[in-house]
Give the backbone structure.
Amino acid sequence: MTKKTWHLIALQGAVMIYSINTIVAKFVSQESFLSPRWILLYMLEFAVLGVYAILWQQIIKHFDISVAYANKATSLVWSLLWSVLLFHEGVSLLKIAGIAVTILGIILINTDSQEEA
């Protein structure tokens, strides 16, 4: 694999970690405000965001900022996956269409940036 491929994999790993924040936030929202479990989960949410921030800062060195932020949109895919697997939420045709458009846009942005390089 090329170095660029590894950078894209690392970028997606960071985005996946960012999407985990949505899982923790959902669990936090289900707890009583300021209960011990709420506080613990809220601290976990900050920890996840902290790990993501450090990874993101290291990864964006290797990308144009527009490409990195376009790829961040894949958090929608991860969030949909988590919502189905963990919370048994439904997937509609509109959600699939929206994600397909998002992925197409990301592919176009990545292809354009590779042609410029």
Q: What stands out?
A: The mean pLDDT is 90.
